[in-house]
Design a protein that fits this description.
The protein has 14 helices and 16 strands. By secondary structure, the chain is of the alpha/beta class. The protein has two domains: about 5-115, Enolase-like, domain 1; about 135-395, Enolase-like C-terminal domain (TIM Barrel), CATH 3.20.20. The relative contact order is 0.15. The structure holds phosphoenolpyruvate and magnesium ion. It comes from Halorussus aquaticus.
């Protein structure tokens, strides 16, 4: 029997040292799953609501746990997630917290996988999954909300498009991270690391472009396959609604100038990927940019879509973007995240499964990416909470994942 017998919730630490929610789900047959909620810093305005972890846990214990225990089968993920939604009773999980919801949703999936003795990606994706792997996008330089006094653009991402295996791709991204450090050193630029382990030097974006372009070229030569790069501009964080302009370190750009700037960058650096190049309310700007460069790069909506099928549908109708970032905690359950992936794929949008800047050792997103056949995963390049997912992808590729 896969009936939930117990749901336990606790507070643990995330990678920023903040408290977050961890859930254990136990089944009557002794199946066990454990998962933890990640947490964003550059959060989208339309994301599901993360509550203070102690409030989220108290509320989930009161409203959700009694509906799950003894009543819901973990193998029926949709029922688990419907129950969470019904227990919450709001559109945005503001009652039990998206942090409690996502932790329970993911822990239930892991308990179901445990019961059948299959890796999580096979439970979620079916017996024939595990032959195709996502290309990892590795954050190597960054700033924005993830590091003070660093680049204005939040993330410069290594994209090893030519890697023959996930393992090669993961190693290439780590090599780019290391090559960036060497180049910073040569220029006598000191750098600490941001929240996701990317270098966070006090340089402007132009210099970061030069360095990352050189680092990716060096690693491409060394590894013998194509390594390009991309960006998460996280433009909502730069956008001033009143002035209607984007604030960079030493300049500002109007929306038209921002579109021109990003389109020029795509061509100058052959960018493989551009996430959130415009404000989260600017479908029109996304559509214009996609029309200009969407044939040669991914234009990905993170804060724009927030893993929400309604917002994605609006984007599809307007031709805004050609890719969606999928973060389970942005929407609150695995079912909702999978719905977003499915709508994206049906509509010709590329799904990118993603971590948050605040993470734990949880590896669910590695399994979700393989389960859904997503072509990309964004989960950092180095750092324990990032390598937890990357190393899990390597294990899945080698068929030795035991989750
Ligand atoms: C991972 C990201 O950062 P955060 O988790 O802070 O939203 C992102 O913006 O894509
Ligand atoms: Mg983003």
């Amino acid at each position: 029997m896969t009936l939930v017998s117990e749901v336990r919730l606790r507070q643990i630490l995330d990678s920023r040292g903040n408290r977050t929610v961890e859930a254990d789900v136990v089944t009557e047959s002794g199946g066990f799953g454990r998962a933890a909620a990640p947490s964003g810093a550059s959060t989208g305005e339309y994301e599901a609501i993360e509550l203070d972890p102690s409030e989220a846990i108290a509320s989930a214990r009161e409203h959700a746990v009694p509906r799950l225990e003894g009543s819901v089968f973990v193998g029926d993920q949709r029922d688990v997630d419907r129950t969470l939604r019904a227990a919450d009773g709001t559109d945005d999980f503001s009652e039990i917290g998206a942090n409690s919801a996502v932790a329970i949703s993911m822990a239930a999936a892991k308990a179901a996988a445990d019961v059948i003795g299959a890796p999580l990606y096979q439970h979620l994706g079916g017996a024939f999954r595990g032959e195709e792997f996502p290309t990892p996008l590795g954050n190597v330089v960054g700033g924005g909300e993830h590091a003070a006094d660093a680049t204005a653009i939040q993330e410069f991402l290594s994209v090893p498009v030519g890697a023959p295996s996930v393992q090669d791709a993961v190693f290439a991204n780590a090599a780019v991270h290391s090559a960036v450090h060497d180049l910073l050193d040569e220029r006598d630029i000191a750098a600490g690391k941001g929240d996701e382990g990317a270098w966070a030097p006090s340089i402007d974006d132009d210099e970061a472009f030069e360095i990352v372009a050189e680092a990716t070229d060096t690693v491409a030569d060394e590894f013998g396959f194509d390594v390009r790069f991309g960006l998460d501009v996280a433009a909502s964080e730069m956008y001033d609604d009143d002035a209607e302009e984007y604030a960079y370190r030493d300049t500002t750009r109007s929306t038209d100038e921002q579109i021109d700037y990003i389109a020029d960058l795509v061509d100058e650096y052959d960018l493989a990927y551009v996430e959130d190049p415009l404000d989260e309310n600017d479908y029109e700007g996304f559509a214009e940019l996609t029309q200009r460069v969407g044939d040669r790069t991914l234009v990905c909506g993170d804060d724009l879509f927030v893993t929400n099928v309604e917002r994605l549908r609006a984007g599809i109708e307007q031709g805004a973007g050609n890719s969606i970032l999928v973060k389970p905690n942005q929407i609150g359950t695995l079912s909702d995240a999978v719905d977003a992936v499915e709508l994206a794929v049906e509509s010709g949008y590329e799904p990118v499964i993603s971590h948050r800047s605040g993470e734990t050792e949880d590896t669910t997103i590695a399994h979700l990416a393989v389960a859904t056949g997503a072509p990309y995963i964004k989960t950092g390049a180095v750092g324990g909470e990032r390598t937890a997912k990357l190393n899990e992808l390597i294990r899945i590729e080698q068929n030795v994942s035991r989750l």
